[in-house]
Specification:
The complex is a heterodimer of chains A (273) and B (232).
Chain A: H1 25-36, H2 53-67, H3 74-80, H4 92-107, H5 114-153, H6 158-185, H7 191-197, H8 201-245, H9 251-272
Helix pairs in contact in A: 2-3, 2-4, 4-5, 4-6, 5-6, 5-8, 8-9
Chain B: H1 3-19, H2 29-40, H3 43-56, H4 71-87, H5 96-124, H6 126-137, H7 141-181, H8 192-195, H9 197-207, H10 211-231
Helix pairs in contact in B: 1-2, 1-4, 1-7, 2-3, 2-4, 3-4, 3-9, 4-5, 4-7, 5-7, 6-7
Classes of the chains: A mainly alpha (273), B mainly alpha (232).
């Protein structure tokens, strides 16, 4: 059975049992296409009370009428998925896929309790949100933006294009791939899937740190060329002050204070010289 | 196209990318600045202005619940104000650094205000969920779902309106201020795009203070320096 299944891309290497009911991609896209584009707007109605509850509902909405059991109230199912939901941006699609899968199985008469669906939804949300947010916000985006900034320093767009390509490769893999995986495997989608998806975590983190060092060095090179030792010295002061204040003040305050200080330094330097 | 309309449409689209969770990252200031430059006919200055704003915030990551400034609007604001103000005949080309500084200050204000607007939105937007609950209770699921998507129009409208106000009021203000205070002392401010990114480098350093990543940061720094030493 397993040998017959096509294995490629993110669908492999998870170590999980392949889905027994794997259908063609066309059939899957036809059934889930309506939900997949909705994944990209999940946080549009984010609010303090239910966070992304309405966004989550909008994803499962196309399945509500199909997923209510005969004689069961579809309204009750809708209300369940209009509650609190917070799974971050990138892997909320996995949770949505898993929930759709479980609701579909329940509608077919399989023994899937409502409490189990709610439990899986809550558990996956909290676990996946932290992992994905760290990977994207603390590693991948800083790496890409550092590369884009280095390139922009020299007036080139190449780094920007590289950043958009790198980020969106993982972005689409997480959101579309994550939903597809969840919708096929249900709660069987394991941590190995996420591990496979983000297996480059350490590499990306290392590259981000290295690129940061390159960026800082190139700034000093440019500063020396533009204003000599005075600019280099001010660069050291601004860099150190920013690093020290990073844990004490908000970013906006640091930027405002140090920008003003830099402007004053330049004016004073101009007057003196 | 009218520059106010161009900048406002772009800001609306980027606000949509930033706030709706479409998150293609085209709303990052370096990208938004370039797009604003393209829309206003000066991609080089647009990229420069957007990139400097981006570099200032390189180390800012949204962890532990810290609020994120609205850099999407900030990126379009700094580029639009800088490009449009420099186009004015009243501005001395030698005061480019001063115009950039005022545009940057205005864009920081826009970014901070954008964050406040979004916090206000988050505290009030539960009305959509409440309305959707009532609709779901009546079995009107498609309409309840449509309510969610209607918020996209609000994000676009906020971005559009903010940028229209910023450009209409901001460009004359930047031109006027630069004209009023410009003098010989304003010329050294041309060095700002070289020095301001050090603030971002410092925050990147703070982000990589661990043993392994600190070592890699230093390795990246030393690699560039070694290459330069051997090249010279």
């Amino acid at each position: 059975m397993e040998k017959d299944l096509p294995r490629e891309g993110i669908w492999i290497e998870t170590g999980n049992t392949p889905p027994a009911r794997r259908r063609s991609r066309a059939a899957f896209a036809k059934e889930h296409g309506g939900a997949i584009w909705r994944l990209f707007f999940i946080q549009s109605s984010r609010n303090e009370r239910t966070l992304d509850g309405l966004g989550f509902f909008s994803i499962v909405a196309p399945f509500i009428s199909k997923c209510s059991r005969p004689g069961e109230d579809a309204k009750e199912l809708a209300r369940r998925h209009l509650g609190y939901f917070n799974a971050g941006l990138y892997l909320s699609s996995v949770v949505a896929g898993v929930v759709v899968n479980m609701e579909q199985r329940r509608a077919r008469g399989e023994p899937v309790a409502v409490e189990r669906i709610e439990g899986v939804k809550a558990a996956l949300s909290s676990v996946l949100a932290a992992r994905a947010n760290y990977y994207f916000d603390a590693l991948l985006v800083p790496l890409g933006l550092t590369i884009a900034s280095i390139s922009a320093m020299y007036g080139s767009y190449a780094g920007l294009i590289a950043f958009l390509a790198l980020y969106n490769f993982f972005h689409f893999q997480s959101r579309i791939g994550g939903y597809c995986r969840g919708a096929e495997l249900g709660e069987g989608v394991g941590g190995t899937f996420v591990a496979r998806l983000y297996r480059e975590e350490r590499l990306i983190g290392g590259c981000a740190a290295f690129a940061g060092g390159v960026f800082a060095a190139l700034l000093f090179v440019k500063a020396r060329g533009a204003g000599g030792v005075g600019f280099v010295a001010w660069g050291v002061v601004a860099c150190a002050a920013s690093a020290v204040l990073a844990r004490k003040l908000s970013f906006m305050r640091i930027v405002a204070v140090l920008s003003a200080a830099t402007a004053i330094y330049l004016v004073v330097r101009g007057i003196v010289s | 196209m009218n520059p106010v309309l161009s900048a406002s449409l772009l800001a609306g689209a980027l606000a949509l990318d930033n706030r709706s969770s479409l998150r293609l990252m085209v709303s990052q200031p370096v990208c938004g600045g370039l797009l604003a430059g393209l829309a206003l006919g000066n991609p080089r200055d647009g990229l420069l202005a957007g990139a400097v704003l981006q570099m200032l915030f390189l180390g800012m990551i949204p962890v532990r619940g810290i609020g994120m400034s609205d850099l999407a609007l900030g990126g379009v604001a700094v580029s639009s104000l800088f490009i449009l103000a420099m186009r004015s005949a009243a501005v001395d080309p030698a005061a480019k650094g001063l115009v950039f500084l005022i545009s940057l200050a205005a864009s920081l204000g826009v970014a901070a205000a954008g964050r406040l607007v979004y916090r206000f939105w988050e505290s009030r937007s539960h009305v959509f969920t409440d309305a959707a609950l009532r609709l779901a209770g009546r079995g009107r699921f498609a309409l309840a779902s449509a309510l969610h998507f209607s918020t996209l129009a609000i994000h676009f409208a906020v971005g559009f309106a903010v940028m229209a106000a910023v450009v209409i009021a901001g460009v004359p203000a930047v031109v006027g201020t630069a004209g009023a205070v410009s003098g010989k002392w304003a010329e050294p401010l041309a060095g700002l795009p070289v020095l301001l990114p050090f603030i971002g480098a410092g925050s990147l350093l703070a982000l990589n203070l661990g043993k392994v990543r600190g070592f890699l940061f230093l390795a990246g720094f030393c690699t560039v320096m070694l290459v330069l030493v051997f090249r010279s």
